[in-house]
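Reopening: DASH complex subunit DAD1 still failing for me.
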Amino acid sequence: MATTNGASPEKTLFEQQREQLLGDVAASLENVLQNINKLNRSLEGVIAVGNEFGQVEGLWSQFENVMSKEPELPKEEAKEGAESEKAP
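Support: Ran it again with your exact input. Result attached.
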C-alpha cells in the first residue's frame, strides 16, 4: 500500500512471511554449517588416530611375514634329509 506522505509503504503479509521464512532458512543453514564443521573436526581426529597406528601395523605385518615363512635348511642338511627319506 503506497502512502502519499513519502514514507516507505507497509509490507504486505506475503513480504512479512517471506522475510520470516528467509530468516529461518538462514538460521538453519548456519546450524547445518556448524554441524558440518563439527563433523569435519571429528573425522580429522579419527583419521589422526588411525594414522598413529600405521607404524604399529607395519611392524605386525613384518612379524607375521617372518613367522609365516618356513625355516630354510642349509643345503647340506637338505640333501641329507632327502637321502634319509629315500633310505627306508
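The first helix runs from residue 13 to 52. If you still see a failure, please send the error message rather than a screenshot.
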